[in-house]
Design goal:
This protein is α/β, with parallel strands linked by helices. The protein has seven helices and seven strands. The strands form two sheets. It has a four-stranded parallel β-sheet, with helices on both faces. It has a three-stranded antiparallel β-sheet with strand order 5-6-7. It starts with a strand and ends with a helix. It binds zinc ion.
Length: 154
């Protein structure tokens, strides 16, 4: 299941990525009209997650060609829980929260020179984003992300 979030739900898109789901959101500088987003959702078989009901007037949404869920203004964790419960999502291998790319598990040799020496020394496994090339590891930041996902997915 792939998602398309409207521009108001960028935070939710990032957390869906952390949970392992392909989630696109329209960022600043791109065409975020309802028509464009609806067409993209249809073409890429993405479920539309939106904060307003305007999309309900779009034919592909009305006739059910595009899956749709309205996500109200709630704390982020509650928004994520709503989507997870509605679609019965399970937690998967995380994607890059920044760019939606898939993460490869790589050894410390691969990232040596690209992350601080202390980090290389203290961790054996790293994650390299196929999309933007960022390197991640299970540090304290990751711990907070994992804790939050744990609360939502149980
Ligand atoms: Zn990335």
């Amino acid at each position: 299941m792939r998602f398309l979030c409207d521009a108001m739900l960028g935070g939710l898109a990032k957390w869906l990525r952390a949970a392992g789901y392909n989630a696109y959101y329209a960022s600043e500088g791109t065409d975020i009209s309802d028509a464009t987003l609806t067409r993209k959702a249809l073409e890429e078989s993405r479920v539309l997650l939106t904060s307003d009901g305007g999309f309900l007037e779009r034919k592909p949404v009305r006739d059910g060609s595009v899956g749709f869920l309205r996500v109200p203004h709630l704390p982020l964790e509650d928004q994520l829980r709503l989507v997870v419960e509605h679609f019965g999502l399970v937690r998967r291998q995380s994607r890059c929260m920044e760019c939606n790319g898939e993460l490869d598990t790589v050894s410390r040799e691969v990232v040596a020179g690209r992350v601080p020496q202390g980090v290389v020394r203290d961790h054996e496994t790293f994650f390299l984003c196929q999309g933007c090339g960022r390197v991640f590891w299970h540090g304290s930041h990751w711990q907070r992300i994992g804790d939050r996902l744990e609360r939502v997915f149980g």
